Amino acid sequence: KAGVTQTPRYLIKTRGQQVTLSCSPISGHRSVSWYQQTPGQGLQFLFEYFSETQRNKGNFPGRFSGRQFSNSRSEMNVSTLELGDSALYLCASSLMMTGTAEETQYFGPGTRLLVL
Amino acid sequence: ILNVEQSPQSLHVQEGDSTNFTCSFPSSNFYALHWYRWETAKSPEALFVMTLNGDEKKKGRISATLNTKEGYSYLYIKGSQPEDSATYLCAFRGSARQLTFGSGTQLTVLP
After folding, report:
1. Chain A residue nearest residue B1, CA to CA
2. Is the pLDDT of residue B44 over 90?
3. Which of A58, A90, B17, B38 is the most exposed place for a label (fewest CB within 10 A)?
4. What pLDDT, on a 0 to 100 scale, did the predictor assign at position A101?
5. Which residues on chain B are in Cβ contact (under 8 Å) with A59?
6. CA B67 to CA B39: how far, in whole Å?
7. Do B99 and A105 touch (CB under 8 A)?
């Protein structure tokens, strides 16, 4: 079974631009969560999508948005990029919504974004 | 803001040594505690999901224990090997449902 895939793997943008990252979950998984990791920080939760609806959101500004399609693929968009948005962005998929206590999330390899 | 802390931040051990590290999390509104292993240039890999106080899980040379009343979990690695070198992350799931991650323990096993 193919794992979680993310595209692109690396990206360089300049301040003020916008960027769209893509995540394809494991086949059959319906929940996709997004995380940001910056140097010195743990993984910070951005949001979770399940059945094309955002179910949960972390503490990030409105410049960060996402969506999920009917095939469970998800995209994350960051508008008006700032230098501090340089980070590794990971997505993770799970079978069901992450309210189930034992539900395991499976991570993709991440997209490394550099904002100049 | 939930506080999930891991210690130590980094650790160097010799091949064959056994080691352990700690994850501290809120003791209220506990749903689950996850452990992940994250090797450089790879995806984080799920190790354990623990939900009950007193839970013990084992996978090969790696095991974990859980104390929800006092809010901590230990991860043990017996007879460390160079391939165990990775960052070990714990993540707390509370009533808010999303995972809150600690900053990780970076383990280096020297041959």
Report:
1. A59
2. yes
3. B17
4. 59
5. 1
6. 27
7. yes
Cross-chain Cβ contact A58/B98 below 8 Å: yes
**Closest residue of B to A32, CA-based?**
B98
Mean pLDDT of all residues in A15-38: 96
User: What span, in angstroms and rounded, lies between the C-alpha atoms of A12 and A7?
Assistant: 13
How many angstroms away from the CA of B27 is the closest CA of chain A? 15
Strands, E, within B1-111: which ranges? 5-7, 10-14, 19-24, 30-38, 45-50, 56-59, 62-67, 72-77, 86-94, 99-101, 105-110
| Res B95: pLDDT | 77
Label residue A76 by pLDDT band (50, 70, 90): very high
Residue type, A91: C
Q: How far apart are CA A84 and CA A81, in angstroms?
A: 8
Query: With an 8 Å Cβ cutoff, are B43 and A110 in contact?
Result: yes
Band the pLDDT of A1: cuts 50, 70, 90.
low
The answer to whether B44 and A93 are in contact (CB under 8 A) is no
- Partner-chain contact A58 B96, CB within 8 Å: no
